[in-house]
């Protein structure tokens, strides 16, 4: 006599009941409508037609194309949280609070603060080797009003930009914008002491304009805001026009490299190639910014006899 649970024919001549392929101890009359293998209720999931086993569903998940933004960043379900933007705002506020505690002055926190003194962007000091000023200056602010204006702009502009670009690209564009602003100051504003997140904010404005172009939507509103801020930078004394323009150009160029790489919404292989090209373009913008800073450092050393 043959055991009816493992094939063959039962003693009464009836065929054995199939067993679940994942649970051989469970007889079942059900099967996957895709692969046809017997499966128990626990191993089946409802499908558009019939029901699929968990193995077929897992295989589909590996080959399915995940939803992505126009920049190729993963599209998260629900209401995405712009974590990086909030972290950047927190860092700027924290550094401002430190300078206030050191100086004992909310409005004139740049006076008597060792952190502010060592991080503010002053080209001769950068030429002398204080490279931390190139990026650190982008997290300093002259007083509470300066901080509030920049953080409000970052909150408004940064959230949508982060969601479209994705966190890693967003951080990269932000930092490259700071580098671009510092490079422009090193090149054209040698004797000024500058600080603030404005260069990075202008870079994000440029990024938004590029994103709108990639989406085939009018960048007019963003360009109008940029033009207004440039006018303000020119007409109000004490504002670093070159820091703003340098950040704007670097941020827009870096975003263009990421957004317009061919194949960003194609097959997995095409997306990987697009990522490589995009990051390569962003690296090129970084190299140009660093190159300008290095060149100006050498020139200033020669001019100042360092």
TrEMBL record:
Biological process, per Gene Ontology: proteolysis
UniProt keyword terms in alphabetical order: Hydrolase, Membrane, Protease, Transmembrane, Transmembrane helix
PANTHER family the UniProt entry points to: PRESENILIN-ASSOCIATED RHOMBOID-LIKE PROTEIN, MITOCHONDRIAL, RHOMBOID PROTEASE
Record family assignment: Belongs to the peptidase S54 family.
Main location: membrane
Location of region: Disordered: 1-22
Gene Ontology molecular-function annotations: peptidase activity
Protein name: Rhomboid family intramembrane serine protease
Localization: Membrane
Gly residues bias locations: 1-11
Domain Peptidase S54 rhomboid: start-end pairs: 129-258
Membrane topology, as annotated: Multi-pass membrane protein
SUPFAM superfamilies, sorted: B-box zinc-binding domain, Rhomboid-like
Transmembrane segments: 83-101, 139-158, 170-190, 196-215, 222-242, 248-265, 277-298
InterPro entries reported for this sequence: Peptidase_S54_rhomboid_dom (IPR022764), Rhomboid-like_sf (IPR035952), Rhomboid_protease_S54 (IPR050925)
Pfam families: Rhomboid (PF01694)
